[in-house]
Write a structure and sequence with these properties.
Blueprint: E1 2-7, E2 10-19, E3 23-32, E4 38-40, H1 51-55, E5 66-68, H2 80-86, E6 91-94, H3 96-102, E7 113-115, E8 121-123, E9 128-132, E10 144-147, E11 152-156, H4 166-169, H5 179-193, H6 202-208, H7 210-215, E12 219-222, E13 228-229, H8 232-240, H9 253-263
Parallel strand pairs: 4-5, 5-6, 6-7, 11-12
Antiparallel strand pairs: 1-2, 2-3, 3-4, 8-9, 9-10, 10-11, 12-13
The chain binds fe (ii) ion (FE2) (2 copies).
């Protein structure tokens, strides 16, 4: 896990996975250093990951007041329960559906849950954070975050892109990626992560980009993309054609067996 300050008020906890055939996918969590500090998502749950120890590089975990789960997919809940233990004052911000999803495996303590829907706001002491539904998402509980006081947006899985190398998945500014490659990778990710996009009226989809155009964040922090600064128009343009791209079809059993045969000794 790589940790660094990407904005005056935002630290990044940057991990990544190699996804066979797709590339290297950043898996980011964040700390918003507001008066009441907010941890946004909690990383992978793989046995060798140490989310709370990594978090301690950027903030004392016991100071954390809010753990905002942008959605309870397993690439974002890895450190959740360890952090709840380490941060006794913290409450988990999620939706009714998100809390319900968590209850199918390891229920959240309900006295530590704060239910927030898109359009609602959370007071974190020195600012108010507004939840919004990103234009692309893979989970019914997804809520992104606008911080209007700083012009920062946390977009959850939206804008993600598998990168060509581990180095690119771990850079501190997406400006390092070639623009054409970035656009192709974002469109691929749109189809992988939000396959419903191919059934959506393109004009209706375009309307869902409007809140982000209007907010025009100076920095966008996606769970699956390196940080983006002063490039929101480009990010939105990149995904605007998502309904029309070739739908992603993953490897099937025959492809898997062919792949495994390559590993067999001659
Ligand atoms: Fe997801
Ligand atoms: Fe994700």
């Amino acid at each position: 896990m790589k940790t660094y300050r990407a904005h005056q008020d935002v630290s990044v906890l940057n991990d990544y996975l190699e996804v066979p055939g797709l590339g290297f996918l950043a898996v980011n969590a964040f700390v918003l250093h507001s008066a009441q500090p907010v941890v946004i998502d909690t990383g992978l749950g793989l046995p060798d990951r140490t989310f709370v120890a990594d978090l301690a590089e950027v903030i004392d975990p016991s100071d954390v007041r809010w753990i905002w789960l942008t959605h309870p997919d397993r690439d974002h809940t890895g450190g959740l329960f360890a952090l709840l233990d380490a941060a006794p004052q913290a409450r988990v911000v999620t939706t009714f559906v998100g809390a319900g999803m968590m209850s199918t495996e390891c229920p959240l303590p309900m006295d530590r849950v704060y239910l927030l829907n898109p359009g609602q706001s959370l007071d974190v002491g020195d600012r108010s954070l507004t939840g919004f539904r990103p234009p692309l998402f893979d989970n019914a509980a997804t809520v992104g975050i606008f911080d209007r006081s700083t012009g920062v947006c946390f977009s959850s899985d939206c804008f993600g892109a598998p990168m060509a190398s581990a180095d690119l998945a771990t850079v501190d500014d997406i400006a390092a990626a070639p623009p054409d490659e970035l656009r192709a990778a974002q469109l691929l990710w749109a189809s992988v992560d939000s396959p419903w996009i191919h059934d959506v009226d393109p004009a209706k989809f375009a309307e869902t980009l409007t809140p982000l155009h209007e907010f025009d964040p100076s920095s966008v922090f996606s769970t699956h993309l390196p940080p983006s600064h002063d490039a929101t128009t480009m990010l939105l343009a990149n995904i605007s054609g998502a309904p029309a791209v070739e739908p992603f079809v993953g490897p099937d059993q025959a492809a898997l067996e062919a792949m495994l045969r390559e590993f067999e000794p001659a």
